[in-house]
């Protein structure tokens, strides 16, 4: 389809955001502060992002009339989640430059294509194989070994659609009819998980945030800490891999690269031991980057605005030595529909509370987060966890 020529979009211009969740909300807040107008395209004005945006077009994401109404108001368009129909992005591109591109999205929507693309570019990924049914799982297990993790190729998030498979007997329990395409991955006995968020402009400039260290509970991000407790060598490798992935996928905007770090000798890997493998990538702001709002000179959301508008990229360095972020899941909300006692959270010094304006708390649903910036990483982690305890 014909595309609009890219040009720099300066403050005063209008940015379109496809998706109405918390990532879109925090993007809109950053863009507003910078003097942009943000129009959100999502299904309901009650979602987190439209509550803080200048305008909103509601409709199904594949409703061409709604897409046109939205896109025709925008100078540049971006998105906050990857499961957007390719036709919608193609339609957006007729009206305004749209980042990331339909190609990047097609790759990021498909775990198999994503892993294959990264691997072909010489980037390290965990051993994987395509699976469609019990028979092909048996073949795949010969390649990747047991235990393995079985993931749906499309539309999984926060561990949804994942099974840990220890044996063929486990595999027999899987509801194979529920999905036609799976990927089997070797279970990586990692020492820690890290992520690197890289921003890339359309003329190929890149900038990375500090490496974040991530603790997951039940496959959902629980706490992010910075600096990551890995040495200089692994840090360099993680950054190289993240930039390599952004270039390989030709991302414009943000790319978060989640990685496993394994085989560290004793934390002092100056001997070159230790391995970094890509787990998955997301071409958008990421939960592990929320601490950049208070913790870095430029937040991931401001960097996203800068990248898609063609502005110079900002300083990503930490404002202090360390920072930590703890997610607030719906599990913390009382069953009677009331709210946690937020006043007690404000009692914990140095902790910032973010709430996403979601009407309904559900188990495992991301409702908000807490951030603490500190001279010392352990203090930052203790503070956010203490503040979270106050929510109970
Ligand atoms: P999602 O799209 O749901 O975030 P991920 O692939 O990132 O899916 O998996 C969520 C979490 O599950 C990871 O952060 C990690 O803790 C765990 N996990 C996923 N794949 C593996 C693996 N191959 N080996 C070990 N742990 C894994
Ligand atoms: Mg993940």
Automatic annotation (TrEMBL):
- Name of the protein: N5-carboxyaminoimidazole ribonucleotide synthase
Please tell me the species this chain comes from: Novipirellula herctigrandis
User: What does the protein in this record do?
Assistant: Catalyzes the ATP-dependent conversion of 5-aminoimidazole ribonucleotide (AIR) and HCO(3)- to N5-carboxyaminoimidazole ribonucleotide (N5-CAIR).
Instruction: Supply the alphabetized keyword list.
Output: ATP-binding, Ligase, Nucleotide-binding, Purine biosynthesis
Q: Where is the ATP-grasp domain?
A: 115-309
Pfam families, A to Z? ATP-grasp, PurK_C, RS_preATP-grasp-like
Name the Gene Ontology biological process terms. Answer: 'de novo' IMP biosynthetic process
Pathway recorded for this protein:
Purine metabolism; IMP biosynthesis via de novo pathway; 5-amino-1-(5-phospho-D-ribosyl)imidazole-4-carboxylate from 5-amino-1-(5-phospho-D-ribosyl)imidazole (N5-CAIR route): step 1/2
Looking up HAMAP family in the UniProt record yields: PurK (MF_01928)
Q: Which gene encodes it?
A: purK
Q: Where does ATP bind?
A: 111, 151, 156-162, 185-188, 193, 216, 279-280
Q: InterPro entries, from UniProt?
A: ATP-grasp, ATP-grasp_carboxylate-amine, ATP_grasp_subdomain_1, PreATP-grasp_dom_sf, PurK, PurK_C, PurT/PurK_preATP-grasp, Rudment_hybrid_motif
Q: Name one GO molecular function term.
A: 5-(carboxyamino)imidazole ribonucleotide synthase activity
- What is annotated about its quaternary structure and interactions? Homodimer.
